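Renewal narrative, Specific Aim 1. Our central claim is that a sequence can be written position by position from structural information alone. The example that follows is taken directly from our test logs and has not been curated for this report. It begins with the structure tokens describing the chain, in the order in which they were read.
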């Protein structure tokens, strides 16, 4: 996998981890009205398999960070939430159309009430319209979704906000702002890390936030060594040995695991998209079976089969044989 693809894959994984690890705080930050209505005494569920099945023809340009979450409101009703994060998004005139297609496919397949939310991490000069309209002669649809552009948030307010997501937004802003200013990254990264120790975050929260900061603001090997020394001094002074050398080794292992998970998901999705392109909607029992396969060699074999077979029934036979 090329270095640029590996970087993008784990960058996406880092965002997914943030949504999963800090979901209540994420909701409070980006959708406070919805947060007030959620009953957090009931568990929320990430519907990853359902989301993968929906990423087919017509959604191929979508970025990888899409989370579908089932939550319950205080009135007892079930609510589904689609979170789409456009990682370092470039201007895309079809963005609102893609949001509508996600909404429609989820509703058409599952018939659940859906709140659609988009988070744009890229340049501040691109702002999607927040809606998609398709009307002719007073007939059609008008679809609206929640949208937040990270570069729009005021830094002073973020610095004063104890919500862990405020740190995430600051790191994302700095990553975009310093995209080509590598020398300035050290001071910015060190400032964000010091902030972690000044707030009343738990050890696990600090490690998870550090994992995100460490990835979006990468340094040279020399600066990385210097940063490690400063972190060790800080931890000794505060008697908070959170990010030790052992933890950083663990983080690097987690990075590699994230890359492997991302590559695995891409291989699975490529097979489903190929079948969808050739034969139309893929039966759920076939896509479910594909998503259960975690052997890369087997997935490569099935992808070749998806290209060569003449019918979906023939592919099903290949799948059964494997």
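The sequence written for that structure reads:
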């Amino acid at each position: 996998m090329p270095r640029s693809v590996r970087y993008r894959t784990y960058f996406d994984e880092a965002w997914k981890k943030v949504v999963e690890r800090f979901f209540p705080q994420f909701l409070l930050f980006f959708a406070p009205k919805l947060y007030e209505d959620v009953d957090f005494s009931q568990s929320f569920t990430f519907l990853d398999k359902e989301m993968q099945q929906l990423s087919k023809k017509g959604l191929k340009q979508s970025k990888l960070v899409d989370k579908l979450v089932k939550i319950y409101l205080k009135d007892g009703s079930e609510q589904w939430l689609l979170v789409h994060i456009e990682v370092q998004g470039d201007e895309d005139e079809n963005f609102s159309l893609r949001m509508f297609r996600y909404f429609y496919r989820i509703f058409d397949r599952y018939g659940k009430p859906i709140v659609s939310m988009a988070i744009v991490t890229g340049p501040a000069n691109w702002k999607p319209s927040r809606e998609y309209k398709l009307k002719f002669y007073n007939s059609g649809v008008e679809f609206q979704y929640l949208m937040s552009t990270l570069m729009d948030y005021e830094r002073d307010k973020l610095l004063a906000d104890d919500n862990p997501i405020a740190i995430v937004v600051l790191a994302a802003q700095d990553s975009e702002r310093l995209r080509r200013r590598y020398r300035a990254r050290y001071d910015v990264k060190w400032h964000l890390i010091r902030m972690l120790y000044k707030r009343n975050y738990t050890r696990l929260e600090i490690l998870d936030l550090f994992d995100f900061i460490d990835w979006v603001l990468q340094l040279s090997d020399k600066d990385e060594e210097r940063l490690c020394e400063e972190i060790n001094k800080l931890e000794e002074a505060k008697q908070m040995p959170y990010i030790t050398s052992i933890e950083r080794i663990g983080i690097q292992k987690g990075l590699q695991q994230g890359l492997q998970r991302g590559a695995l998901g891409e291989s699975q999705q490529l097979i489903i998209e190929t079948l969808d392109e050739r034969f139309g909607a893929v039966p759920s029992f076939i896509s479910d079976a594909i998503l259960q396969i975690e052997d890369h060699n087997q997935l490569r074999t099935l992808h070749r089969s998806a290209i060569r077979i003449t019918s979906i029934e023939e592919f099903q036979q290949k799948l059964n044989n494997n």
